Amino acid sequence: MTDRYADGMRTRRAVLGDAHVDRAEANRTPFDTPFQTLITEGAWGTVWSDDTISRRERSMLTLALLAAMGNFDEIPMHIRATAQTGATKDDVMQAFLHVAIYAGVPKANHAIKLAKATYAEMEEAKK
After folding, report:
1. Which among 26, 65, 98, 99 is least surrounded, fewest beta carbons within 10 Å?
2. Superkingdom of this entry's organism (predicted)?
3. pLDDT tens per residue, range 7-29
């Protein structure tokens, strides 16, 4: 295990939570191990572990980029991560408003729909 992998795993757990990472690790197979290593070292060990900008800012950027590119499958996961990163609902809405202007209203609309559903699930889980 590299230092970057170890850093990535710590950051990944801090942002996404142990339960999410434990599920991902339990589902790892020899086929997807190279990909899991890549994202743990690259996304989490390099980008998310860098302290140049805050995790709150990274959350907002990530959500905006996912929506702008139409990569909607990961939006709920990153909405749930805002509980750890400090990005508020208002922050997320501002990110999606930028998406609407710069990448298209339909993409922002779909991202907002996913965010609303995920926030509702999060609220329900607190009860």
Report:
1. 26
2. Bacteria
3. 999 999 999 999 999 999 999 99
Q: What angle in degrees, to the nearest 10, is found between the helix axes of 105-126 and 55-68?
A: 130
Q: CA dihedral in degrees (43, 49, 53, 54; nearest 10)?
A: 110
Could you tell me which of 70, 74, 46 has the C-alpha nearest to residue 59? 74
With beta carbons less than 8 A apart as the criterion, state whether 73 and 42 touch.
no
Is the pTM higher than 0.85? The answer reads yes
Q: Are 119 and 83 in contact (CB under 8 A)?
A: no
Q: Which residues of 76-96 are buried (b: 16+ CB within 10 A; e: fewer)?
A: bebbbbbeebebeeebbeebb
Contact predicate 70/107, CB 8 Å:
yes
Q: List the structure tokens of 107.
A: 């993409």
Q: How confident is the model at residue 1 (pLDDT cuts 50, 70, 90)?
A: confident
Give yes or no for a contact between 52 and 11, defined as CB atoms under 8 angstroms apart: no
